[in-house]
Amino acid sequence: VQLQASGGGLVQAGDSLRLSCAASGRTSSDYAVGWFRQVPGKERELVAAINWNGRSTGYTDSVKGRFTISRDNAKNMVYLQMNSLIPEDTAVYYCAANYRTGVLKTAREYAYWGRGTLVTVSS
Q: Which residue among 18, 38, 50, 97 is the one 20 to 30 A from 107 at the CA level?
């Protein structure tokens, strides 16, 4: 599966953004997806993850209550709704996928990665 992330941009603290991850290639939607983010000098961090049918999700503590991951399998799309953004959310955001059950919580569990989209939150 090929992944393409989009929707990043420059916003002010308190604003919202919705990132999109478009999947193409293999037609079945039985893949788990994760959104990661990375800032220079730091490891890639899992932000949110969702299982193949959208019924199970997981979030890192710093985004709980502010970010929501969702998917539309009919459109082969996964979204990350980011509300109440803070400067610490500034990073390059990546979506990743793998054909495994459950919610995948580490980068090594993902086999497919898209190019990142930059999110910059100004104070």
A: 18
> Would you place residue 27 in the very low, low, confident or very high pLDDT band (cuts 50, 70, 90)?
low
Q: What is the 3-state secondary structure (H, E, C) of the chain?
A: CEEEEECCEEEECCCCEEEEEEEECCCCCCCEEEEEEECCCCCCEEEEEECCCCCCEEECHHHCCCEEEEEECCCCEEEEEECCCCHHHCEEEEEEEECCCCCCCCHHHCCEECECEEEEEEC
Task: Identify whether the C-beta of residue 50 lies closer than 8 Å to the C-beta of residue 103.
Answer: yes
